[in-house]
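Please, structure for the following, as tokens.
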Amino acid sequence: MLLLALGGKAQAWQKWHKYVTNDAAGVSGSCAFATIQKGINTALAGSTVIVDAGDYTAQGVLSSANSGSSGNLITIQAAPGATVKIARITVSNNYVVIQGFAVMSPGSMLSNIAGIVLSGSYDQALHNTIYGNCQPWVTGEGCNTAIYTGGAYNTIAYNTIDGQNNSTTYAFGIGMYFDTTSSYTTASYNTFQGMNSPGRVFEIYGSFNRITHNEVKNCSGEKVNLQDHPDIFQTFGSAGSHDQTIENNYFHDFGGQIGNLEANGNYPAWYHWVFRNNVFANIGNSLFMYFPVSFYNNTSYNCASATGVNRFPLYACYANGAITSKNNAFVASGTSIYNGWYACGSGDNDFVSNSVTGGTKSGFNEPHGINGGNPHLITLNTDCVVNSCNFGITGESALKGQGVNLYSTFTTDYADSPRPSSGAWDIGALVYSPIHLMPPVVY
């Protein structure tokens, strides 16, 4: 069944009817429900609620009412091509899709009062834009949350989290929050931009979640004091967070730090985070880790180079024996020391250089590591928002064919190009191609 919300109203049609903006009497919406929520309340498995163009923020928080089923989803969506503004929407049922809305009033820093809340299972948030535009907390870490998810097997894809680049506000304390019940949820092809002084872009708990093919860009750093440091990733407390995969993402031009992963004394519940095939560029500070984390084939450029910071190119760690690093390229990132890496875990086949054309770093000592040499990255800039940056490598690169083969762990690169099943791998996020040099994918 197709439910049409026309001017904030909904009307029932059999699913084989075409979408129309007039009812049988020829007057738009005269037979429709009075509110969007009424249309949602009426929708059953297999139904679609389509909302016509308009500003419906005055209707307040929308809430799911019924569950769909596998193959018979309930879809609540903006009309194709229409701008449909709503305040917030909460989904507590299963097999529900939220699609195409402009979410104007994400809630407070309390994560479960977010712009979009998915707390059921097999739910989807697709092609929405969540705007943050609010006054900051006194601590300066933003004041609302864009998307909250719990439950299992949810999908969050092709959304834009937009802080609107408003310098008078610190819009968004949290971009995306995975609660302790979250498992097997995927966040992919989302864009996070203009998030001025966020507390963190991703706060992740639960297990077996996947962050892939997202872009985080143009986010400012500390606004109030050094305690209010923006993180791309953060997790802490006592609940636990394990088996999280962060791959094929583009994180760049971020004025805080890559992240802070804390176990808070509950080490057995925190383990096996994997970062692979990610590009990090123009990020002010390191990633701090207190539990097992693995890094494979990431590319870091101009990261952890903040004034007065004396850290390894991408990360500093406090989890003895817990960190694994292979095939990563750290180009013009960090300062001159390796920061006690071997007290933290093991590294092999990594590349480091002082500049974009080479230069060695003191304190670097891996069995098969490369210290210095020209990585020949295609196009580098200290601002990859205004300028073009391309982290592909040429055939002359010091990264080419110098990595260990990890095919049993993963098989593609940042741009989903295949990696070889045998023989040496290229170091970094992108493999060399003589036909086309793959730039970072922008979504």
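Confidence is low (pLDDT under 50) at residues 8-31, 307-313, 336-342. The first strand starts at residue 2 and ends at 5.
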